[in-house]
Amino acid sequence: MFDSLLAAIVLLLAIAAGFSAYKTRAIEQTYPNIGELTDIGGYRLNAVHLPRPATADLPALVFIHGASGNLRDQFEAFAAPLRGRAEMLFVDRPGHGYSERGTAENALPSGQADAIARLMDRCGIKSAIIIGHSFGGAIAAAFGMRHPEKTAGLLFLAPATHPWSGGVDWYYTLAAMPVLGWLFTQLFVIPIGLRRVDTGTLNIFHPNARPADYVMKTAPELVLRPRTFRNNAIDVVNLFAYVSTHAPRYSEIKAPTVIITGDSDDIVLEELHSRGLARDIAGAKLITIRNLGHKPDYVTTDVAIAAIEHLGGQPRDLEILAAEAEIRIANLPTEPSKSSAGSQAVMTS
């Protein structure tokens, strides 16, 4: 009896592992790498690098995606409207998308900021406006502190930068564990996660409507691959302690800074993170948009681009543009959330 039960468990685990391996290959075939891998010193980062065009009127721009994301997220939002105006670098953070994880330091925002700085060196980018969305905001803040000579400006989009209450979701805690986490990501994440991609991406945009082609264009399923999901979980689990230590140092940031956030963001609370940044960084401009959720990069792309122009030295009235965006949002359809938002951690990009 015991032998039969053990054999059945082993068989089920083998089936789960085989399914995960099969779906990992299928996901990568559906969403192949659109970037280029560059060695930055013992490991490779993946990025799409658009060289400076002759018509450029802006400084170089470096885009940093959030948790559970990859470079496609920011690429789809900004590459087309900014093409011909700036050199652009869209980065898969270490261990995400098609980037290799690299050293142990890359489990922290500071290590990932250093990795992006080395990639900029390889690409010949001396300084840039750093744009960070969600979890990418913590990395942008670390970049501004650690590499001020490379920081022409900082744009934070719904950033996660300060300690919060409520912890992180259980599956991140489990996935980050040394042994159980490896088993969980290898056996269960893909079959469970594939059923939640639609709901999860709808919740990212809530209360705003998600673009119909968002999932196909931005490839959120890439994070379900076992190794990537584990890296993502470790990042999220480490974030609280990191920002608890480093948030008091944000006053060291001297670069021109703009923060764009929504007052209806259920993923990262604007009153905690965005207002905290505006308080901590001298001269930072805070733009809060009513009825905007966690995706100002997509719902108010025009305001984000105007902020980039402002940081690039061009005259832009961001408050007027934000007010116009509020009117536009009020006339757009809304998307009901499919589930409760859960903890105020960085759950998705």
Automatic annotation (TrEMBL):
Question: What molecular functions are annotated in GO for this chain?
Answer: hydrolase activity
Source superkingdom = Bacteria
Q: Which SUPFAM superfamilies match?
A: alpha/beta-Hydrolases
InterPro entries on file: AB_hydrolase_1, AB_hydrolase_fold, Carboxylesterase_BioH
Q: Does the keyword Iron-sulfur apply?
A: no
Short name of any one Pfam family annotated for the protein: Abhydrolase_1
Q: What are the record keywords, sorted?
A: Hydrolase
Q: Does the keyword Glycosyltransferase apply?
A: no
Q: Which residues form the AB hydrolase-1 domain?
A: 59-172
Q: Name the PANTHER family for this protein.
A: HYDROLASE ALPHA/BETA FOLD FAMILY, PEROXISOMAL MEMBRANE PROTEIN LPX1
What is this protein's name? Alpha/beta hydrolase
Q: Please report the organism this UniProt entry assigns to the protein.
A: Rhizobium tropici
